Please model this.
Amino acid sequence: MRIKPCLLVVILVALAIAPVFADGMFVQSPLYPGDVSYTYSSQLGISGSSTSIPVNAVLQAIGNTDYPVTPGDSFTLAYSDGKNLVTLELQADSDCRVMIQSVGVVEAAGLTYREFKLQVEDLISKYYTYSAPQLVLKNCGVFSVRVSGEVNFTQYVTAWGLSRLSDLADYATRFASTRSVTLITKDGTSRDYDLYAALRDDSFEDNPLLSPGCEVRFNKASSIISLGGAVKSPGVYQPLAGQTLYQVIESYGGGLLNSADERVISVSNFQNGQYSARQLSMEQAKSYVPADGDSINITSGSQAMPYVTITGALASESATNLTAASRINYNFIPGETALQLVRNIAPRLLATSDTSAIYILRGSQKIYVDASAALTSAEIGDIYLEQGDIVVIPFSQLTVTVTGAVRNPGSFTYVPDRNTDYYINLAGGFSDVATQGVKVLDKDGNKIKDSTVPADSTIVANKTNITNNIALVASILSIVSTVLTIVINGHTIATW
Model:
């Protein structure tokens, strides 16, 4: 099948511009709300959670006054019966009842380990006077807890005596409520707990210990917002109904940073298939109630500061070796000078940056700035930056000129630490009339004796004197021969 010429042109044009669209010609506004992807644990401000029994569980239980007697706990009871030492191994059953030989059953449900220890030791002392009883926790038991609601799937997980409600955070999805988690005990009693408040205020009242047979139900969050920018504690939060943006910033975000611009608070959202954005001040934030999904950003004061555009021989990022011109916007502090700017952007300057020829385009003006000394001194200067200035850093045009007895004389790009052989080779090498000798002149015409060639110098390749004389004699003989030929021919014609 033959392709028509016009169709071929269209295809070629499409292929040519395809990479442009592939790289992306559209720049998306930063106000587009992103997907809130913080995990449930991150929303609570914890790195992770676990209900598994730790290796040093017994030591933790003995050292914690809150450790409750748990089904499966085992103990060692030792006391003296007259001259005999009695040692008994005890264990709590599923109802936390402990059977003690020759004494009876002790109900340990609802008792802490310390309370149970005192009760048993008092009981043995009553039965056996001066028996010096001693009860020691030997192993910690475990039990199952049902996890349901806003989780990946309902399941039973293992817990132990010191497992708390927050230890189940990793089982909840990021849409679960941090402000309302329901705990249902074995007897059917239920209560809602505010985990966020419990962890923020370091209070155990809203972060209770789990108990055997209980169920934890994670409810769905009613409102999730993200808070970023110039606040002390950026993150994802779940404010309570009716709380204003001002309260969110002060309570959840910890207040504004000193660099915050109280006039510019950006609020964006995506609801009902549409994007929306609004700008509020801190004063207006006192009456605005955030909606579910709001993405809130507190603008930094530096974003509202004046700026200049810097272009030319500088890297778009520091420590980048670029040869093409770059362009960056530079926020400056009112009163900052051009020389201070050069010192501040020093990491972005290149080997080819000509700091002695910097100039500022200010309207129709072109203001030159010699900043070559600014990098090695504390000089400030008197050229103050103004909003809208364009600071141009030219590329240095350093060359070395090669002339004389070379095949291709001309000017070549200067390369530091190169000798005359390097530039002679760039000029095509010595010509047939060269003496293989050179002299190097600086930009003022003075002869240089250094082994390396400096910038803006001239290399002169010498010609041989013998060759010059031979060429001169050859030219004279050629002229004489021509004259004689003319004379002889003229005389011959006249005689004829």
